[in-house]
């Protein structure tokens, strides 16, 4: 018997539409393919930076720790700031030439982790991150300071600054507080939303072997390019969320002196409260880091530079994660065409002539799908960017709290 015939009005799985329908169906498919090919061609042609912005193309790295990343349109992004790369050989030769004279004055970082918070009750999410730092650095001391204990330190060591301190609020107070504890004790300051991934000892020993007495990390390059609009020639741009220093470090002293002068003036104090990033935060620290590097370049071999000898780590050492919740980052980039997720973002039209926008958007392409894509084998800690001092994090507002004295016995509450 033959195969049963389909019922009227019901198509067999293999039945074909009438000829006229097939004709129009073919037209639709052909048109769709043409649109897709045109879009892909357009995105490929439109995703390249203008000719005057294109830099020499470099080989694609095997991992985020490689020297150069190549993104959209062949845009190259250097992991290490060009300025730091240029001076590495010079500084290395100086260190070798100093020999025993340098070794007699090797800096030593106190093995202390410092953190500050408003009070002894902390959001519960911090506890696991604090535990990670104890687990990876079990022999290091760990201090936590409240506003009250910072006030006591200030009254003891900088009594003339008390009137200015009383006017500080929020992040400005936190910025000055970290400088106080580093000036007095030395060691490592880190924000509360830091998680340790590996021991700090290797990084500290590497800096000490090179004669460095101050360590700071370049901020995540997505922030450097898309939030600070910094091009390669102006790098490194550093953050103050993680700093290591020897006690009484001259750069910390300079920072404190400038801060006291700024905040002691009523006009500049008001401006500072409105722009803490530029006044007491990363922009101010970056300016001092460049000043310190200039002074070190101009100093005589084997003598201590006026603002110390600074190590600036690649961004993925302590800033491998970026602030994915910051909506400003995506403001500068677009996916072209938007319907194709795989197409790399490129700068929106107003920013298409800016090299920082091309570099930032190339990095954003991968980070949008994985906020920790740049956390690498050399990362010792990661900053989770909870905006812990600005009070705008929904996760912090919803978090329960724990008593650091009672529930974190390895911590010394100052």
From TrEMBL:
One annotated GO molecular function: mannosyltransferase activity
Transmembrane portions of the chain: none
Provide the protein name: Alpha 1,4-glycosyltransferase domain-containing protein
The keyword tRNA processing belongs to this UniProt entry's keyword annotation: no
Instruction: Provide this UniProt record's keywords sorted from A to Z.
Output: Transferase
GO term, biological process aspect, one: mannosyl-inositol phosphorylceramide biosynthetic process
InterPro entries cross-referenced by the UniProt entry: Glycosyltransferase_domain (IPR051706), GlycoTrfase_DXD_sugar-bd_CS (IPR007577), Nucleotide-diphossugar_trans (IPR029044)
From which organism does this entry originate? Answer: Vitrella brassicaformis (strain CCMP3155)
Q: Which Pfam families does the entry link to?
A: Gly_transf_sug
- Name the domain of life this protein comes from: Eukaryota
Q: Which Gene3D superfamilies match?
A: 3.90.550.20
């Amino acid at each position: 018997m033959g195969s049963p015939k389909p019922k009227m009005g019901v198509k067999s799985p293999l039945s074909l539409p009438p000829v006229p329908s097939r004709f129009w169906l073919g037209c639709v498919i052909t048109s769709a393919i043409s649109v897709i090919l045109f879009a892909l061609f357009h995105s490929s042609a439109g995703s390249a930076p203008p000719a005057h912005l294109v830099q020499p193309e470099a080989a694609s790295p095997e991992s985020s720790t490689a020297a150069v990343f190549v993104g959209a349109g062949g845009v190259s992004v250097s992991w290490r700031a060009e300025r730091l790369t240029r001076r590495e050989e010079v500084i290395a030769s100086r260190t070798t030439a100093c020999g025993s004279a340098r070794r007699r004055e090797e800096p030593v970082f106190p093995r202390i982790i410092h953190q500050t918070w408003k009070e002894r009750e902390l959001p519960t999410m911090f506890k696991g991150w604090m535990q990670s730092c104890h687990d990876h650095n079990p022999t290091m001391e760990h201090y936590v300071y409240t506003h009250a204990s910072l006030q006591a330190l200030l009254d003891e060591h900088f009594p003339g600054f008390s009137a200015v301190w009383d006017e500080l609020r929020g992040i400005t107070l936190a910025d000055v507080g970290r400088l106080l504890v580093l000036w007095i004790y030395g060691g490592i300051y880190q924000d509360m939303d830091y998680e340790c991934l590996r021991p700090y000892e290797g990084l500290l020993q590497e800096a000490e072997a090179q004669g460095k007495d101050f360590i700071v990390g370049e901020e995540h390059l997505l922030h450097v390019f898309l939030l600070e609009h910094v091009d390669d020639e102006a790098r490194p741009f550093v953050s103050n969320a993680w700093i290591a220093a020897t006690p009484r470090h001259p750069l910390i002293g300079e920072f404190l002196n400038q801060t006291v002068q700024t905040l002691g003036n009523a006009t500049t104090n008001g401006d500072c409260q409105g722009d803490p990033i530029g006044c007491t935060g990363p922009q101010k620290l970056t300016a001092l880091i460049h000043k310190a590097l200039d002074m070190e370049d101009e100093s005589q071999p084997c003598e201590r530079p006026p603002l110390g000898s600074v190590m600036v780590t690649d961004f993925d050492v302590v800033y491998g994660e970026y602030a994915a919740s910051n909506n400003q980052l995506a403001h500068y980039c677009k996916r072209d065409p938007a319907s194709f997720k795989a197409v790399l973002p490129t700068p929106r039209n107003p920013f298409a002539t800016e090299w920082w926008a091309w570099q930032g958007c190339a990095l954003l392409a991968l980070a949008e799908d994985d906020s920790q894509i740049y956390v690498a084998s050399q990362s010792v800690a990661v900053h989770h960017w909870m905006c812990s001092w600005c009070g705008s994090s929904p996760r912090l507002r919803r978090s329960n709290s724990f008593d650091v004295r009672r529930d974190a016995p390895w911590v010394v509450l100052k």
